[in-house]
Amino acid sequence: MCTFPSNKIFKSTVRIDRSKGWGLSFLISLFFSQALAAKATVQPLKDIVCLDQVTKALDAAGTPKEWLRFPGGVASRIPDYGSIEVYPEKTKTRFVLVGPKSTTGFMLETPKCEAKILFTKPNRPSLRDIDVAELLHKNKNGGLIYVWSPHMELSVGEVASLKDYGVKYPVTVAVDAEADSELLKKIVTDKKLPAEYAQAANSSVLFAADIGIHYPSTVFYKYGRIVMRIPGYHGSGLKEIAQKVLK
Predict the structure, then answer these.
(1) CA–CA distance, 218 with 211 (Å, rounded to integer)
(2) Which architecture does CATH list for 127-246?
């Protein structure tokens, strides 16, 4: 159990169990606050609203390792805890803390910056915005994010053959986050798919690219940005498509 630090002006208590992630016990009283020394850890967020409250959440969870930008926000790993994804808007800031066992979303809105819990749910293997941010940062020359569904026959057939296509760029695979878990488990076992192919596509970047309109969908990225999404089954033609899109 750990709490937000407090000073003479700010009083805030957030109970965090590191073995269970963020709990629902969220007792908070907010007053106008002064900047903490820990604010240095969130310099990439210096222009967001409710900065002090986000800073205190970070101080409670741990020190961000490296801030990476992605379309719509920034994210960082937190050693020995998990990760944080921050989504700044004009009058509010949303952020998601991924702990060891659970994920919790928060919203802070001006003028009071009172924290609201948006959701708390158990963790599952997922491709999140932090993961997409790392891919965009790492693979400057381009890559693919392939999202499939166990409910679509062509999608199942293609994901099982994906490694045989000889695509010259890094390919990351995720599955429809709404897919039936039992069906997914059966197909992964029957097709002997790599375990990472069952990670859920839980990324706002991918949702913004409209991956949910049709499965499979392939998202292409290069130079730190999303280039385009191309829906549908392509077979071995995916290699040529990738070369044309990412050349």
Answers:
(1) 8
(2) 3-Layer(aba) Sandwich (3.40)
